[in-house]
Amino acid sequence: GAGVSQSPRYKVAKRGQDVALRCDPISGHVSLFWYQQALGQGPEFLTYFQNEAQLDKSGLPSDRFFAERPEGSVSTLKIQRTQQEDSAVYLCASGTSGGETQYFGPGTRLLVL
Amino acid sequence: RKEVEQDPGPFNVPEGATVAFNCTYSNSASQSFFWYRQDCRKEPKLLMSVYSSGNEDGRFTAQLNRASQYISLLIRDSKLSDSATYLCVVTPYGGYNKLIFGAGTRLAVHP
User: Closest partner residue to B104 among A42, A100, A102, by Cβ?
Assistant: First the structure.
């Protein structure tokens, strides 16, 4: 079956531009996570949704980062006024309710110039 | 101090070698433990869960020591295809399964 998909796969932005990254989770998955992975580091938690409810956004690095999942399926991570330090791979993962296994998408590689 | 610490490596080993990775975690209340594998420019994929009783999956053996807050992964008879970064992962106690990753240990298996 279809896995988690993310788009775009690559994004180059000029500093100060706004970007929107999309995640299509596995159909029926209740849980959705966003992670940020800087070069040479492990992924770091950004935010968590259960259906359409954003239950934890403690990992969002600043108020320039905003995530939504309005209908409980597709999610968008938006970064306003991008900075060079936002350059990273943004990974989305989905899982079943209460399940421990998270299935990762291929990620969006963001480069801010 | 990071919540999950790993030796970054790289570990360069010949095919057929046995290699062991270690990881420590700082939060004694951590609930679940995993090893993920990440190939270059790919997403992380679950390799195996880790239990106090130890668990084995083919050539891979994982062990958890809660008292020492220490997790290990042993790979026997290394293959070229084992070359990857191995990420040690824990989840916090209670609630949902937010994953907390170590920085990863790189393994390069050569002929």
Answer: A42
* A22-57 residue pLDDT tens: 999 999 999 999 999 999 999 999 999 999 999 999
* Best to test chain B binding among A45, A102, A111 (most B CBs inside 10 Å): A102
Q: Are B110 and B13 in contact (CB under 8 A)?
A: yes
Comparing CA positions, the residue from A29, A47, A25, A104 lying closest to residue B34 is A104
Q: Are B44 and A48 a contacting pair at CB < 8 A?
A: no
Alpha-carbon gap, residue A13 to B70, rounded angstroms: 41
Read off the pLDDT band of A98 (50, 70, 90).
low
Average pLDDT, chain A: 95
Distances (CA, A) of B43 to A92, B10, B74, B100: 9, 19, 22, 15
pLDDT tens per residue across span B60-106: 999 999 999 999 999 999 999 999 999 999 998 776 788 999 999 99
Looking at CA atoms only, how far is residue B90 from chain A in angstroms? 11
Q: Do A95 and B97 touch (CB under 8 A)?
A: yes
**Cβ atoms of B18 and B75 closer than 8 Å:** yes
User: CA-to-CA distance for A102 and B69, rounded, in angstroms?
Assistant: 23
Instruction: Look at B46 and A44 and tell me if their CB atoms are within 8 Å.
Output: no
